[in-house]
From TrEMBL:
The keyword Signal applies. InterPro entries: Cupredoxin, EfeO_Cupredoxin, ET_Amicyanin. It comes from the Bacteria. Residues 34-45 have a biased composition (Low complexity). The lineage of its organism: Bacteria, Bacillati, Actinomycetota, Actinomycetes, Kitasatosporales. Gene3D superfamilies: Cupredoxins - blue copper proteins. This is Cupredoxin domain-containing protein.
Length: 146
């Protein structure tokens, strides 16, 4: 007769608990570390964001001029800036792009890898400047300097 006794079920539960408790302790210890120190000492500041290839750089601070590339399109359209303004270009696509003035190469970001940012300085002469992505020339935009 093959009968399971309450004792064998208890043994299995103890084995499972014996395996789970150490794993839970490791998780709790790892999650409970804190940068707050009670002895008044300070911790070192966090490292600045990485700009290595493939890393995502956060967009610039509020108040800066931003041109966004997303889904193979520039925004806003058109972009109006002051003469000589520094424009930060945020590439939200996974593929590289540029923002390059069509006439006289009045500005050019160079290649901006996917998830990265680049900058260009707007011309100092007021006017309307058409630009493209030299990699994907169907991508167009207009910069108005006024």
């Amino acid at each position: 007769m093959n009968r399971t006794t309450p004792r064998s079920g208890t043994r299995r539960r103890r084995q499972v608990v014996g395996l789970l408790v150490p794993a839970l302790l490791v998780l709790v210890t790892a999650c409970s570390s804190s940068s707050d120190s009670s002895d008044g000492s300070s911790t070192s500041p966090a490292a600045p964001p990485s700009t290595a290839p493939g890393s995502v750089v956060p967009p610039p601070a509020t108040g800066q001029v931003v041109l966004t590339i997303s889904q193979f399109d520039f925004a806003p359209k058109p972009l109006t800036v002051a003469p000589g303004a520094v424009v930060t270009v945020v590439n939200k696509d996974d593929t590289p792009h540029t923002a390059t003035a069509v006439k006289d190469k009045a500005f050019n970001t160079g290649t901006i890898e996917g998830g990265q940012t680049g900058t260009f300085t707007a011309p100092t002469t007021p006017g309307t400047y058409n630009y493209i992505c030299t990699i994907h020339q169907f991508m167009t935009g207009t910069l108005i300097v006024s």
